[in-house]
Amino acid sequence: MKIATFNVNSIRSRADLIVRWLEEKNPVDILCMQELKCEEAQFPKAPFEKLGYHLAINGEKRYNGVAVCSKLPIDRVKTLFDNDVLDRQKRLIEVQIDDMVILNVYAPHGESDESDPKHFYKMAFYDVLTEYVKGLMTQHDKVIVLGDMNVALEDIDVYDPVLFQGRVGFLESEKQKLRALLEIGLTDCCRHRYPDTKAFTWWDYRTAGIWRDEGMRIDYILATDAVVQECVEIEVDLWTRRRRTPTPSDHAPLVGELKR
Q1: Count of domains in the chain?
Q2: Which of 76, 151, 168, 220 is within CB 3.0–4.6 Å of 112 for a Cys-Cys bond?
Q3: 154: closest CA among 130, 180, 136, 172?
């Protein structure tokens, strides 16, 4: 079974490309998308349903938004988390599929100025998210937390760690929050399988960084041990990111394969 996380940077702009990817290149079983930039009513459901996907959507007008497309039945969907920090913007959707609970996350971008309210919001989001996931793990053995975490954790996760010093997404305060999430019992599946491999998931549009592989790894599949034991492969699929038309997202999907 293949599961993917993909920041699509506007589903309505990227739907044709994503459907082509699913049809021609990588027909994943579960696709978790972030940054939809539309409400559920505007989500282009038909082409995904035609491919046999069930949909769960938590959308927001113009910004944010997350969705899960699954060829397996979605047994349960949660879009409200009874917490102002988590519910303030549409950044989370939780689904149960078979024996797995999947939490699809679009973490706040934040700000390099650590006195800025956007930075405080990102810090608070991670604190509450960590506590929520900790509770989730007491109820379920197979938990996957995936998505655009908007943090590059180690020097190997950016193409030039000196250049990225002091930049949003590479601040030590942000890294501490992501490490705290991992320390409750989650494993970074990509780094677990490939401890020394650079595998970026985001490249700046403005610098055409994709063609020189000048990127960051900010998209993750994190999982409990019961899932990690089933993970036989994980890779960044560059097919969509290297398209010139239609215009791609600035992210590429991260695809994990589970032996089930």
Answers
A1: 1
A2: 168
A3: 172
Nearest-angstrom CA–CA distance, 222 and 102: 10
| Mean local confidence (pLDDT), 186-197 | 98
pLDDT one-digit tens code per residue, 11-53 = 999 999 999 999 999 999 999 999 999 999 999 999 999 999 9
pLDDT greater than 90 at residue 65 = yes
C-alpha dist (Å) from residue 108 to 25, 94, 97, 227: 30, 17, 26, 26
Token pair 């409400």 in the structure block, residue: 39
Global model pTM greater than 0.90? yes
Burial class (CB in 10 A: 0-12, 13-18, 19+), 70: buried
Residues 6+ apart with CB under 8 A from 15: 44, 47
* CATH code of the domain in which 34 resides: 3.60.10.10
Evaluate the omega torsion of the peptide bond into residue 47 and state whether it is cis, within 30 degrees of 0: no
pLDDT for the residue numbered 245: 86
The residue length of the chain stands at: 260
